[in-house]
Amino acid sequence: MNNTLRIGKYELKSRLIVGSGKYDSFQTTLDATLASGSELITVAVRRVNITNPAQENLMSYFHNTNVKFLPNSAGCVNAQEAITLFRLTREATGIDLIKLEVIGDTQKTLYPDVIETIKACEVLAKDGFTIMAYTSDDPIMAKRLEEAGAHAIMPLASPIGSGLGIQNRFNVHFIKEAVSVPVIVDAGIGCASDAAIAMELGADGVLTNTAIAQAKNPIQMAQAMKYAVIAGRLSFEAGRIPKRPYATASSPETGMIF
After folding, report:
1. Which of these is catalytic: 22, 68, 99, 176?
2. Using one digit for the tens of pLDDT, what is the confidence trace for 72-93?
3. What is the total count of domains within the chain?
């Protein structure tokens, strides 16, 4: 199985990306991330400290690991806010691999404002950032983001933190057909089977946060996600049998003894 996930100039051995929000402590965040096997953890830099060494800093917990940080622009509601945030973050940390998200509805759905996301993507791409763009599950917008310079497209499975799983499986397939960059299913994953389904549909990777952080046992759920992504990828590469309306005998009907 080809486990290498290439996003721009970066290569990851794990196709699972995890989040850092909603944990009870930075230590649990670390333990769950290591259990997941993920090499990339996304961090809302407006909400989680990774820049101020004078305060408890999440980056210090990951100092001796191979886990990379993926700053995200959660909380930004227009392109300019996201652009400014990432420029300041890169200046403070040197990190240029980013998850771009601009939220249009901050009260109920947390759906992205894809138009503002595209505007920000165009500017940040010219600035030299490697951009993973959070978006709706619209294949047309996915293509627009690729044209704007995104190095990976991250369509939502369902609303952030909802745990509803993939609500439109066809659109994952349509987005894969529309773009040539990796497609990472993001938001709404509720359990390990959701992650496996995303991979079986052909997604290049999965990002999940709440499903792990809010599980009764985050470490166990992180392990489950790890194996679900691996199993889903194996299943996709193996190739499923076609669906048929009627039964098909498993044993041969010729050469029977009786």
Report:
1. 99
2. 999 999 999 999 999 999 998 8
3. 1
